Amino acid sequence: MIPDDRSALTAAGIRSSLKTHVLGRALHVHQEVESTNQVAMALAQAGAADGTTVVADAQTQGRGRLGRSWLSPPHSNIYLSVLLVRTLPRVILSWISLVTGVSVARALLALGVNARLKWPNDVLVYREGQERKIAGILVETVGDHPSDKPVVVVGIGLNTNLVESDFPEHLRRTATSIRAEIGRMVDREQLIASLLLDLEEMYTELHADQAGVVAEFIRLCDTVGKRVRIDLVGDHHVTGFATGLAEDGALRLQQADGHILEIRAGDVVHLR
Ligand code: BT5
Q1: What element of type H or E holds 263?
Q2: Which candidate, 150, 265, 169, 200, places its Cα nearest to that of 24?
């Protein structure tokens, strides 16, 4: 059954569709939190298990990268954080954010949304030549974890049943939702369950067949092969041609003089 705008997200509803072995097996569903990433961080510090998942119907301080905020109204979207407590080689760690984008894009494609990825963490839809962000990913490392393993929280914000008029003015031309794209509402609980299953498979595949995962990212990503400007922290930017990805997922940028830079953090602007 497709819920109306007011239906609440419940753990039972998500569990009834869940086919994972690890992700979401410990599941915390809240009506409202400041940030699901923050709740997952606190659970990590208290020793929560690998795959512990936090879902909220609304966030009051949803966060993006670099102190930016994530619009998180109630009853309409997906705000999800997954805790990964496992042995992750450094090279793989930096791929977590990229492969999470692959899973989100694949979930959207299955619903008929023509999703594309922008390195490193944006899930986009193009409408009338305009890029619109439909989902964002925020991976944060957990310090002071009781285990010796590297521990990360993977946060996903996915605009699902929000209608265009719900977006504030400053996001109306640059953001979209599944409903705005396909003209119907989707069941958030089922979507969360299928997303968790694909994520579980992707994280396993990342260990077993990194080349396959990289190829899947490149297939879905619009940044590689484009002229781009990259806004770096501070007021700096660099421009060039995105030629590919380094082993750790950094973006390789060829500048006009032929020099290759490897970019590990920044905001990409696709140039024509
Ligand atoms: C991101 O940051 O794209 C990462 C967003 C991650 C959000 C999830 S929700 C669950 C978990 N818990 C959290 O607290 N966070 C994660 P960034 O690349 O910095 O993009 C942020 C920018 O996107 C903002 O500055 C706005 O311009 C725009 N934006 C904010 N909310 C949006 C929304 N709902 N849809 C589309 N664009 C949005």
Answers
A1: strand 260-263
A2: 200
| Long-range Cβ contact pairs of 37-40 (< 8 A, separation 24 or more) | 37/63, 37/81, 37/138, 37/140, 37/153, 37/155, 38/63, 39/81, 40/81, 40/82, 40/83, 40/153, 40/155
Domain boundaries, the chain: 11-220, 227-270
Fold of 227-270: SH3 type barrels. (2.30.30)
pTM greater than the 0.90 cutoff: yes
Task: Kindly give the number of the ligand 1 atom that is closest to the alpha carbon of 267.
Answer: 18
Q: Which residues in 232-268 are b (16+ Cβ under 10 Å) and which e?
A: eeeeeeeebbbeebeeebbbbbeeeeeeeeebeebbb
Give residue 133's identity as a one-letter amino acid code.
Answer: K
pLDDT tens digit sequence for 166-215: 999 999 999 999 999 999 999 999 999 999 999 999 999 988 888 898 99
62: which 2 tokens?
Answer: 């949803």
**Tell me, what amino acid is at 270?**
H
Angle in degrees, CA 17, 64, 182, rounded to 5: 50
Q: What is the pLDDT of residues 71-120, one digit of tens each?
A: 999 999 999 999 999 877 777 778 999 999 999 999 999 999 999 999 99
> CA 123, CA 103: separation in Å to the nearest integer?
10
Distance 159 CA to ligand 1 centre (A): 10
Domain 11-220 belongs in CATH node 3.90.320.10: no
Ligand 1 atom at minimum distance from 133 CA: 36
Beta bridge partners of residue 63, listed in sequence order: 69
* Alpha carbon of 121 to ligand 1 centroid (Å): 10
Pocket of ligand 1 from Cβ distances under 6 Å: 35-37, 59, 62-66, 68, 70-71, 79-81, 121, 133, 136-138, 155-157, 159, 171, 175
